């Protein structure tokens, strides 16, 4: 009985580990999409406030992305993501 309990625990932990990984992947994808949208709107001359309002996103997050893009226009979205996650 103890072995089957341990196997159940390991399977449960493995499942929850995958679930957490999937959730992190979804969150990363959402942030990468937001970075792309902010980048495109910034290139069109829109302000951080207007972008946040248009996208219905948190103003602080949009401002952080906007400012990193402003300071590092040569970076691509993955580099911006890494910079924000530091």
Question: Could you please describe the fold and organization of this structure?
Answer:
This protein has a domain at 26-85. It is elongated. Helix 1 packs across helix 3 and helix 1 (2-43) packs across helix 4 (77-85). The model has no long low-confidence stretch (mean pLDDT 83). With 86 residues, the chain is mostly helical. The protein has 4 helices and no strands.
Keywords for this structure?
86 residues; mainly alpha; 84% helix; elongated
The overall pLDDT, averaged over residues, is: 83
Largest sheet: none
Distance N terminus to C terminus? 46 Å
> Percent of residues in beta strands?
under 5%
Overall body shape:
elongated
Helical fraction:
over 70%
Order of helices and strands: HHHH
What structural class results from the helix and strand content?
mainly alpha
Work out the oligomeric state of the chains in this entry: single chain
Please state the CA-atom Rg, rounded to the nearest Å: 19 Å
Please tally the helical runs, counting DSSP H or I stretches of 4 or more residues: 4
Quick recap:
The chain has 86 residues and is an all-alpha fold. It has helices at residues 2-43, 48-55, 59-71, 77-85. The chain contains four helices and no strands.
Chart the SSEs and their pairings.
Blueprint: H1 2-43, H2 48-55, H3 59-71, H4 77-85
């Amino acid at each position: 009985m103890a072995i089957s309990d341990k196997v159940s625990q390991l399977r449960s932990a493995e499942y929850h580990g995958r679930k957490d990984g999937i959730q992190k992947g979804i969150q990363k994808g959402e942030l990468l999409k937001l970075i792309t949208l902010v980048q495109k709107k910034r290139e069109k001359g829109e302000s951080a406030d207007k972008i946040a309002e248009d996208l219905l996103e948190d103003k602080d997050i949009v401002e952080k992305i906007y400012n990193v893009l402003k300071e590092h226009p040569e970076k691509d979205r993955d580099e911006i993501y890494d910079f924000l996650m530091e």
